[in-house]
Design goal:
alpha/beta; six-stranded mixed beta sheet; binds the ligand N[C@@H](CCC(=O)N[C@@H](CSS)C(=O)NCC(=O)O)C(=O)O; single chain; binds fe (ii) ion
C-alpha cells in the first residue's frame, strides 16, 4: 500500500480496474475530516465503505479534470453522503465549488493547494499536499508518461509548460500520485520523472513530436463519460 510521509494524514490509494483509475482519500487523522480525489461511479460503494470504516467525514469530492475514460463518482457520492461538495476547475462542468490557480481547501488541519496544469485538457489541475510531500497530478503527469493531447482542447506545448513550470519545480522528493497507471505502478517522484520520464525529460520540440505520434485509440467509455462528467456523473 502506498504511504505518505505525514503521520497525521490518513491516506488511501484505491484502484478502479476497468479504466485503470486511481482514487485517493485523504483525511486529518485527528478531526477525521476528509476529501476524495477522482472517484469513479462504479466504485462509489467501495469508497464510501472505506470512508465509513475509517470513521471519516467526507467534505469534498474533487475531480482533477473532466475525465474522458470513466464516469465520475462525485454525483453519486453527494447523493449517498449529503453535505459533500463537488469541486472542479473547469467552469463548463457542474460542481458546487469552482477552484482556480492557487486556491486551497482545508480539511481539519490539513490543506491541499491547486495548481492549474492545462494541456491534457484546459481545466486540468494538480493538487499539492505539502505536509505529505505529495502531488496528485491527474492526467497531466503519469508515471513515465503523461496525458494525451489529441482531444478535449489538448495542447502538447501547453502540457509541457504546465508540467515543467508547475510540477517539476516542486521538490524532487515530492511523491507523484497520478490519476491512472496502465503498467501496475502506484507512484513516482518529481525527481524520478524529471530524469526518467521518456516524454517530458526531452526538449519541448521533441515532446511535441512524440505526442503527435502516439496514435492511441480513443478511451472505450469516452462517449458515455464526457457528457456525464459535465453534470457530475448524474444524468436525468
Ligand atoms: N485504454 C484506456 C484509455 C487510455 C487513455 O487514453 N488514457 C488517457 C488518460 S484517460 S483521459 C491518456 O492520456 N493516456 C496517455 C497514454 O500515454 O496512455 C481506456 O479505454 O479507457
Ligand atoms: Fe483524462
Amino acid at each position: 500500500m502506498a504511504h505518505v510521509c505525514d503521520p497525521t494524514l490518513v491516506f488511501r490509494q484505491l484502484f478502479e480496474k476497468v479504466s485503470s483509475t486511481y482514487t485517493y482519500v485523504l483525511a486529518d487523522a485527528n478531526t477525521r475530516e476528509a476529501i476524495i480525489i477522482d472517484p469513479v461511479i462504479e466504485t462509489v460503494d467501495r469508497d464510501i465503505k472505506v470512508i465509513n470504516d475509517l470513521n471519516l467525514k467526507l467534505l469534498y469530492a474533487v475531480n482533477t479534470h473532466v475525465h474522458a475514460d470513466h464516469v465520475t463518482g462525485s454525483g453519486q457520492i453527494k447523493q449517498k453522503l449529503p453535505g459533500v461538495k463537488s469541486v472542479i476547475f473547469d467552469m463548463n462542468a457542474k460542481a458546487d465549488i469552482y477552484i482556480k490557480e492557487g486556491d486551497s481547501l482545508q480539511f481539519g488541519s490539513k490543506k491541499i493547494e491547486f495548481l492549474s496544469t492545462p494541456g491534457h485538457t484546459n481545466g486540468c489541475v494538480s493538487i499539492v499536499c505539502h505536509t505529505a510531500k505529495s502531488v496528485f497530478t491527474g492526467d497531466a503527469l503519469l508515471i513515465r508518461g503523461c496525458g494525451r493531447t489529441d482531444f478535449q482542447q489538448g495542447n502538447s506545448a501547453l502540457l509541457y509548460d504546465s508540467v515543467h513550470s508547475k510540477i517539476f519545480t516542486l521538490p524532487d522528493d515530492y511523491v507523484v500520485f497520478p490519476a491512472h497507471d496502465y503498467t501496475g505502478q502506484t507512484n513516482s517522484s518529481v525527481g524520478e520523472e524529471k530524469k526518467h520520464n521518456p516524454r517530458l525529460s526531452k526538449a519541448k520540440e521533441e515532446f511535441i513530436k512524440i505526442m503527435a505520434n502516439l496514435n492511441l485509440p480513443y478511451p472505450a467509455q469516452i462517449d458515455r463519460a464526457l457528457p456525464a462528467n459535465l453534470v457530475c456523473g448524474i444524468q436525468n
